[in-house]
Amino acid sequence: MSSSTLDAPPADPILPTSNDESGNPSTAGPGEPASPPKVRDGFLDTVRAIALIRVIFWHTLAWAAISWAVAAMPAMFFVAGSLLERSMNSRPWPQLLFSRLRRLLLPFWTLGAVVLSVLVIVNHLHPGSDTALSPASLLGWIFPIVDPRGTVWEAGWATTPLWYIRCYLWLLLLSPLMRRAHKRWGLKFLIVPVIAVFACDYLIRHPESAPAVFTNVKYYIGDLATFSFFWMLGFSHNDGAIAGLDRRARLEWAAIGGGAAVLWVKFMAPPTLVVNDSYPLLIFVGIAWLGLFLSVEKWLGQGLTNRWTGPTVRWLGRRSISVYLWHPVAIVGAYWLLSELAPSAPQIAVLPGVFALTVVLAVIFGRVEDYAAGRKAQWWPGRDDPKLIRDVGDRLGRFLPRRLSPIRAVVIGAVVGVLVVNVLVPSPEGLPEASAAAAGTADADTGGLALPPAPSAKPDQANFGAAATATSAAASGTAATAAATAAASGAPVSGAAADPAAIKDKLQAAVDSWRTTKKVDGVQLGVMLADGTDITLTSGKKSDGSALDVAASYPITSVTKSMTAAITLELVKQGKIGLDDPLPAITKVPDLPYVGKVTIRQLLNHTAGVKPYDTTAGYQAVKSGPLTPETALKLVVSEPLEWTPGSQVGYSNSGYLTLGLLDEQLSGKSYADLVQSQIFGPAGMTNSTLDDTPTAGWAGFSAGGVVSTLTDQLAWGDALYRKGKILDKDSLAQMLNIDNQFNTGLGAFPTCPCSLDNGVKVFSSIGHNGGQTTVQYAPKQDVVIAANLTESMWTDDLSQADVAELLTSVEQVVSPS
């Protein structure tokens, strides 16, 4: 969880250690009185080491199954809470707070100096909206009570994992209050964060019920509620409340948590199976793993002294902050190296490089962690260091100051940042594109190995904030402006001569890499370049193992809605109805409860509040039989509107079935005739039809009934968005106008990366997705993109954010020089 949704995988916090947790003889910082040596807790050290290693695996590979293997975030906050409670029992709070802030902020400021130096120099070499750094974003780098922010260019790899510092800082500042409540009510007080977790989750899933301010703070609240639960559970561990539970009770605890997680997935159907994407799921899985850890507490406690595990556990204990802060940089570097040396290697082959580079970075910057903790600085901490390493480290240490002030930390970080930029970014031409890092796509020029999504990135959504977390270079201007200009002139707005064969080779490499990373069986892809050249290709095979054919027909499902929207807008232009007119009675379904209560515009942009027919109470009884538009809408007759029309947005097939019947009624033609005469004919779509055969549980019709081909879908996108063959300039501008609080057009949705450029919303492409299909127009590149996948982007295995990554990789390949 972080400030960017529940989306994409959150980072797991590796919390700062205190001197009394490090194994050093003294717990005192500079100028503080010495305190007696503390006995290390091998159980807590080992749990922290396990969680940290799991963090690196998760962020490197981003496989959903890894998020279930050790709940690292709950484990780390549990460890931190237990250790903090121990320190609070022996030290005055002001002294302890100052010590903890010093140990946290000095390493953090060093990272910030490196990151900000790189971002400033990159912007100087390659100025633009994607490299611009907002001055307001610096607040989080000074005192991270809000999330630190970077630029579009760094794509979240330098900043999104830093949410944990913000969450840790909030918990640290609130600890005296939480401790007082815990002392008074004990484990009973844990019900407070649990209630807050479920309330937050409900409001995230039902934004219509949430106050407006909740949108901006929902992840701050969710993180604080979730991890305060484990923080205070750590309090209970230190004060002995858990010690009374025998092994059987602890295993029962694990079973209850695991069972609750399974039931939550089964009945609540979270959008993804990534544990980190659901606060309640984090609670359940965290309880399960802590129960398992505690059931073998004595055995795990030997991890610190074990001959084989002890050195690793001790080293990670002394370098936990450095490892956490710098491992994302190691991941990016390892992927780049492997893509250069062995681009066809499997993704898992990157792990050795990630761990090796993480160790190197932890060695380089680990001394800052020692300085911050007020202990002897070492290049390689641990009593079992080989003599050669100790000797070399001691000699190098003579050239560094004994204490590292905040100013020196910033200066050293800035120098390192300058060196990094001079090596990696010698010129604007050598600047790495953000989309490769942001979207998990192969490098367009090399066909290299694909990065996973940035750590802690939220699910893809139209978020036009000052800085996006996962984006490529944003399009200049809006799609409405670019497309409308092209439609008026009859000519493409951009584009230069290019070699289609070379572009196809690069597209093939990018799509192959994306498909392999996302574990998709097959992809059919079509791209129409700015000069009108079509490029089509396939990657992989069908799910049954048979070959894919670029000429084959396939259901475009909800992409049909863009056609329905175009037909409706043409009727508006003809004066048959107004966009803001109330919905008139529908002859074929006379009892619709929302007639006269919603407008045509609200049906087109999904803000009407019409309940989807497949979520109604009566759907289960009829879903096994064929549905027509009329029978599907009759399921909605007894359902009230889900919200006041125009106040919320929510995708509804029922709304577009209503529009299809309205179009028939206003025009006097069947929807099949309308789509043939107004869509297929003008666009030259000779291989497209409307399949209006009633299907079990599905009423396609005007919400998703068209069957088409790749080349016809490219022709559709070209005719609609570029050539003005379907709508005139004004009608197209209305369709693509997203200047509203919901960021939705009339049958069109922007695809992020998104950002604001002088107050203007810009995005990578705009169009419509279906279950397994998409048709998009990318204004910056002036290309139309169509894709058909073997997996649905609405399932647990693939998301619309994943498809956005595919689109970004395609856009990078065809981007004009």
- In DSSP terms (H or I, runs of 4 or more residues), the helix count works out at 28
- Fraction in helix: 40-55%
Instruction: Give me the secondary-structure category.
Output: alpha+beta
Instruction: Kindly provide the radius of gyration, computed on alpha-carbon positions and rounded to a whole number of angstroms.
Output: 28 Å
Stretches with pLDDT under 50, minimum 5 residues? 1-37, 396-402, 419-448, 458-481, 484-497
Strand arrangement, major sheet:
2-1-11-10-9-8
The tally of strands reads 11
Overall mean pLDDT = 81
Separation, N- and C-terminal Cα atoms: 37 Å
Shape: globular
Report the sheet-strand fraction: 5-15%
Largest sheet: 6 strands, antiparallel
Protein described:
- By secondary structure, this protein is an alpha+beta fold.
- The chain has 28 helices and 11 strands.
- The chain has helices at 19-22, 42-61, 72-88, 93-125, 139-142, 163-185, 191-205, 214-238, 247-268, 279-295, 297-300, 310-341, 351-372, 387-397, 406-424, 434-439, 479-489, 500-518, 560-573, 600-604, 619-622, 629-634, 653-667, 671-683, 701-704, 710-722, 729-736, 800-814, and strands at 522-528, 534-540, 554-555, 626-627, 689-690, 695-696, 706-708, 749-757, 760-769, 773-778, 783-789.
- The strands form 3 sheets. It has a 6-stranded antiparallel sheet, sandwiched between helices.
- It is globular.
- The two termini are 37 Å apart.
- The model is unreliable at 1-37, 396-402, 419-448, 458-481 and 484-497 (pLDDT under 50).
